[in-house]
């Protein structure tokens, strides 16, 4: 199953053997999206270059670098189309097989439940930050924190992490009797709240994961010293993780890690400020750094609302390379089986 992002670009100078072409990532994409792709192509009139025979691909922060490995010259002032293959996707054959299984299940004495494998690409999340939301504050009870952390609020006044992830509270005193309530949106864009007790001279982490944070306020007790609010390294899954055994593979930079990460399964209770993440979460064993790619292969016994594409207009996630047609799924917010995209007009200088 081949699925591509197509990036349209114009070179200002010819590129020959050993030369490079640099292209910004499409909006919402990163290394993790393309690392498992095996059919990248560069197309210009009269030629189709295929990776890795004709060019190689390397990834840095925000940039895709192509290095020409063939003797073909890419002419100057020529329109090029870069097709970046991402793993996963669906096709007619896949859907037909599911339909066949459903028909067999109707007449079989055994129970046959289709559980398609779903590749969840989390991209390359940045490191956790203890002060991403609010830094060193001691608001009174019922007084909201000022959102003055490392991630500036967007035009709608909300704080949006790079991926859907959990929150943290860092304290330097015993604040365990306090409750701080976070408010914002979950992965599907629905409102949610979470009540968290700070710890004793430590950092504690929430169980829910967040598409955005709109506010935080102490609702019980009075803080004795400043605390900071940030984001952790637990990431929300966009489909229901019904059981730990449904995780078929965890890939870090395309390989199974020596020490596995931790998973929590879907919640089977009504959401509340005290409940966990409704679909399930993943916490890698290592430290995310903005360059390490994470992918999870899950047997999708229960899809859930996390799999429904949605439109998000309040995240401020415009990315590099101008406006792009990305269907209506916000990438970079932990999703799966992304829609095919239209071409992105990107001016590239060599």
> Could you give the distance between the termini?
33 Å
- Strand fraction: 25-35%
Number of helices: 2
Helix- and strand-based class?
A: mainly beta
Helix share bin:
under 10%
| SSE string, helices as H and strands as E | EEHEEEEEHEEEEEEEEEEEEEE
- Give the low-pLDDT segments: 305-350
User: What is the overall silhouette?
Assistant: globular
Largest sheet: 6 strands, antiparallel
Residue-averaged pLDDT: 81
How large, in whole angstroms, is the Cα Rg? 22 Å
Q: What is the number of E strands?
A: 21
- Please tell me the total number of domains: 3
Give a description of the structure.
This protein has 350 residues and is mostly beta strands. It folds into 3 domains: 3-89 and 341-347; 103-123 and 236-336, no CATH class; 129-233, Jelly Rolls, CATH 2.60.120. Helices cover 6% and strands 35% of the residues. The protein contains 2 helices and 21 strands. The strands form 5 sheets. Strands 9, 10, 13, 15, 17 and 18 form a 6-stranded antiparallel sheet that branches. A hairpin with a 5-residue loop joins strand 11 and strand 12 (191-196).
Blueprint of the fold:
Blueprint: E1 3-10, E2 20-24, H1 31-34, E3 41-44, E4 47-50, E5 55-60, E6 63-68, E7 79-86, H2 92-107, E8 117-121, E9 129-137, E10 165-171, E11 179-185, E12 191-196, E13 203-205, E14 212-220, E15 227-236, E16 247-252, E17 262-264, E18 281-283, E19 294-299, E20 335-336, E21 344-347
Parallel strand pairs: 1-21
Antiparallel strand pairs: 1-7, 2-6, 3-4, 3-7, 5-6, 8-19, 8-20, 9-15, 10-13, 10-15, 11-12, 11-14, 15-18, 16-19, 17-18
């Amino acid at each position: 199953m081949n699925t591509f992002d197509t990036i349209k670009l114009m070179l200002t100078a010819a590129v020959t053997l050993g030369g490079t072409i640099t292209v910004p990532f499409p909006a919402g994409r990163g290394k993790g999206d393309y690392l498992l792709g095996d059919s990248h192509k560069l197309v210009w009139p009269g030629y189709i270059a295929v990776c890795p025979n004709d060019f190689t691909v390397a990834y840095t922060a925000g940039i895709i670098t192509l290095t020409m490995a063939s003797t073909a010259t890419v002419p100057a002032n020529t329109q090029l189309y870069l097709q970046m293959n991402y793993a996963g996707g669906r096709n007619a054959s896949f859907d037909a097989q599911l339909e066949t299984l459903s028909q067999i299940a109707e007449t079989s004495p055994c129970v046959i439940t289709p559980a398609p494998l779903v590749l969840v690409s989390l991209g390359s999340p940045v490191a956790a930050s203890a002060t991403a939301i609010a830094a060193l504050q001691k608001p009174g009870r019922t007084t909201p924190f000022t959102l003055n952390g490392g991630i500036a609020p967007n035009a709608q006044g909300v704080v949006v992490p790079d991926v859907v992830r959990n929150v943290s509270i860092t304290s330097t005193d015993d604040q365990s009797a306090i409750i701080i309530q976070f408010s914002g949106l979950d992965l599907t864009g629905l409102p949610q709240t979470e009540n968290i007790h700070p710890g004793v001279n430590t950092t504690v982490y929430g169980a829910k994961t967040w598409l955005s944070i709109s506010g935080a306020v102490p609702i019980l007790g009075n803080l004795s010293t400043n605390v900071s609010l940030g984001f952790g390294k637990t990431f929300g899954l966009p489909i229901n993780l019904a059981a730990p055994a449904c995780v078929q593979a965890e890939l870090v930079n395309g390989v199974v890690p020596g020490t596995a990460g931790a998973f929590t399964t879907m919640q089977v209770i009504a959401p509340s400020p005290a409940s966990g993440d409704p679909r399930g979460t993943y916490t890698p064993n290592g430290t995310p750094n903005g360059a390490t790619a994470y992918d999870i292969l899950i047997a999708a016994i229960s899809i859930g609302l996390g799999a429904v594409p949605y439109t998000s207009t309040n995240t401020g996630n415009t990315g590099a390379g101008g406006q792009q047609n990305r269907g209506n799924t916000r990438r970079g917010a932990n999703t799966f089986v992304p829609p095919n995209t239209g071409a992105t007009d990107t001016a590239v200088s060599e």
